[in-house]
Write a structure and sequence with these properties.
Non_canon_purine_NTPase, globular, manganese, Maf protein, 6-stranded mixed beta sheet, 8 helices, alpha/beta
Length: 181
């Protein structure tokens, strides 16, 4: 039997680790998946505001993992929020790297109530804001804001899983993605 496919996730959050393991198990069903979470600094605030800050946080986590660990793939997810012209929303950036290519992906937006977004602008983290608003504990390691605001029809993990699934496309069809004309 072949050696396990080793995946390092730039977080110890079980939601992020499970999302990564899910997509690698789906794309590589013939392989055992060794998916481990590690503490990787994002280099951005605990609650990133804006798409750029959120993307950079995910890329910083992946780059840290590449520098400190040996694996087939490195994965990071970073949740952020932004005030768009149509309203406040939360989303995540995902980064997958196989030491040859680095692919950046992004989740869909979840509209945020303005009062919750305002709390983020005042320095709070979304998980803490949601725990307070819904009287939950450590929701960020469970269904997240997404689970609470959609009555669990979607969850933080399902959103990460979808974003990671889409970000895998360039690894699956690398010859096509390398073509420029």
């Amino acid at each position: 039997m072949s050696q396990p496919l080793k995946v390092i996730v730039g977080s110890k959050n079980p939601v992020k680790i499970n999302a990564a393991k899910c997509i690698f198990s789906m794309y590589f069903p013939e392989r055992d998946i060794d998916c481990q979470g590690v503490n990787a600094p994002s280099g951005v605030p605990d609650q990133p505001i804006g798409e750029e800050q959120t993307r950079i946080g995910a890329q910083n986590r992946v780059n840290y993992c590449k520098e400190h660990y040996q694996a087939h793939y490195y994965v990071a997810m970073e949740g952020g929020a932004e005030q768009f012209s149509y309203g406040a929303a939360t989303f995540a950036y995902v980064v997958i790297d196989n030491a040859v290519n680095q692919v950046v992906g992004r989740s869909s937006n979840l509209p945020l109530p303005q009062i919750l977004y305002n709390a983020l602008l005042n320095g709070a983290e979304l998980g803490d804001v949601m725990d307070k608003a819904f009287n939950t504990t450590n929701i960020k390691q469970q269904g997240g804001a997404i689970g609470l605001l959609t009555n669990n029809h979607a969850t933080r993990e399902s959103t990460y899983t979808q974003a990671l699934t889409l970000a895998m496309a360039p690894f699956l069809h690398s010859a096509l993605y390398c073509q420029t004309n």
